[in-house]
UniProtKB/TrEMBL annotation:
Protein family per UniProt: Belongs to the pyridoxamine 5'-phosphate oxidase family.
Binding note for cofactor: Binds 1 FMN per subunit.
Matching Pfam families: PNP_phzG_C (PF10590), PNPOx_N (PF01243)
Source domain of life: Bacteria
Swiss-Prot/TrEMBL keywords: Flavoprotein, FMN, Oxidoreductase, Pyridoxine biosynthesis
Role summary: Catalyzes the oxidation of either pyridoxine 5'-phosphate (PNP) or pyridoxamine 5'-phosphate (PMP) into pyridoxal 5'-phosphate (PLP).
Stretches assigned to the Pyridoxamine 5'-phosphate oxidase N-terminal domain: 46-160
Swiss-Prot/TrEMBL catalytic activity: pyridoxamine 5'-phosphate + O2 + H2O = pyridoxal 5'-phosphate + H2O2 + NH4(+); pyridoxine 5'-phosphate + O2 = pyridoxal 5'-phosphate + H2O2
UniProt keyword annotation of Oxidoreductase present: yes
The name this protein goes by in its record: Pyridoxine/pyridoxamine 5'-phosphate oxidase
Organism: Stutzerimonas kunmingensis
HAMAP family the record matches: PdxH (MF_01629)
Amino acid sequence: MIQTLADMRRDYTRDGLSEANAPAEPFGLFRQWFTEATKTEQAPVEPNAMSLATVDSDGRPHCRILLLKALDDRGFTFFTNYDSAKGEQLNASPYAAMTFFWPTLERQVRIEGRVEKVTQEESDAYFQVRPLGSRLGAWASPQSQVIRDRAELERLLAETEQRFLDTAPHCPPHWGGYRLLPERMEFWQGRPSRLHDRLDYRLIANSWQRERLAP
């Protein structure tokens, strides 16, 4: 098994990333790469899937896959249960890191920064465009809490369906969005022989500084 893992490798030959083709600020490059990923990546890959890393009050890291749901010049927005494990961790330490990986394009983007809650209006607006099942699930699931079995979850969902039988579910008070305000963004393009391209953007005194990192 160990030898088999050691032999697993591929050479990255699709593209390169040069300073001449990269803007002075990172949002334009991210939008370009994300647009290309939506046109290139095939199911089951979701181009807006990302890993989100947080730290708890004991300094222990936690990581999971989420979906990016909004992007503007302020930052990157995702939605979750505020009482979940990740919500508690962000309350204890409001900093996080996300990573996007687009294997077909041989690209990765790492983003680090402070996290803040979005406005209630933003959470309400996104909640209303979610499928009905997802809105009911946000009310039914005590996210990250221990439950006895699947039957308990289905019972909670059935009770929620009865509660909203005659009215559309509104956004729960324990559910909403977070926006990561980037302070650092690194763009990684796979290259042959593991000599990858890495352009690193850091926000210093409200200005983006770009540097090349060794692979």
